[in-house]
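Box 3.1 A note on notation
Throughout this textbook, protein chains are presented in two layers. The first layer is the amino acid sequence; the second is a token string describing backbone geometry. Keep the layers aligned when reading.
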Amino acid sequence: MHLTSGILLAFHLCALTAPVTSRPAALPVRIKLAFHRSISSSAIKLAAAEEAAAIWSPYGVDLRFDESGAAPALSLDVLVERTRKRSAELVPVLGRTIVAPPPAEQAPVRISYDAVDALLEGRHGANPLLHDFILAIGLGRVLAHEIGHILLGVPTYHDETGLMRTTFVSDDLARPERSGFRLADRSVSRLRSQIDGWSDGSAAAHCADRDR
């Protein structure tokens, strides 16, 4: 089985286990996702994008990774970076988001490919197919978390559990099902308020947030 088809097959099998929920009207969010030039796997890129989109879809957020469709309510740049240097930080930073107050332009979301890969080391053995699948899932979940800070507005915060918790361990990022990446109740309420604001055409106020 080719790498791309293998990853996507496993990905869709996982999606079949997700609970069916009623979805509110979608908020279109366009994501310009750019990977470091050393990351060439189209399967990793596609599966990471699909994972982030699948996490947000039940809450009425339509993440779009192309130019198709109606004009989005929000457009975000995302960079998946590589440093190739071992971090001296005790807790590796998987992603960073600086949420700028309007009218300043939103800074790019930054995801560390190396930090996510290192956290997942040993979860896949020597199987390259499993490595790429698990890595793509992990990157997508970190991306979904960072996008959450922008969507949820100010004051920025973390929940005790779920998508917006402070830290993730390897089990969180590697587990096939997504039950650990749902929004907490207060975040669902905050998101609805934010979506109402965007629907009314009013810009949400944001503040700076650095996040792991």
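Residues 24-199 form a domain with the Collagenase (Catalytic Domain) fold (CATH 3.40.390). Helices lie at 3-15, 42-56, 113-119, 128-152, 170-174, 185-199.
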